[in-house]
Request: fold
Amino acid sequence: MNKSSSSKLVEELGSLLKEAQTEPFSGQSLGRKMTDEELVRALRLDLEAEMDAINLYESHLQATDNEEAKKILEHVIKEEKDHVVLFSELLKTLDPEQAEIWSGGEEYFSKALKGGQD
Ligand SMILES: [Fe+2]
Reply:
């Protein structure tokens, strides 16, 4: 790979990385406040981010023998799980259809385990 093609690759990777990262001021890019429908979509992304954080911190927990780091990671993982609950509860207040589906979750799960249909 010559220098020009490698610098082009670095530039392209930089652009991809920038797209993948959260834009810190994206919340102001609308030029107005979100509608509740847009907020529901944002909360679904927030839930996804919390789940990703749990996976990331668990992988770091498993990858270290540093006891201090493990205690902090375990503490933060618990907090992220709490955040999942808070975002889920907030989402239920804004998306009644989702709330109804979740309310039957335990029964649906039990039926599925027994091989039943919904
Ligand atoms: Fe969080």
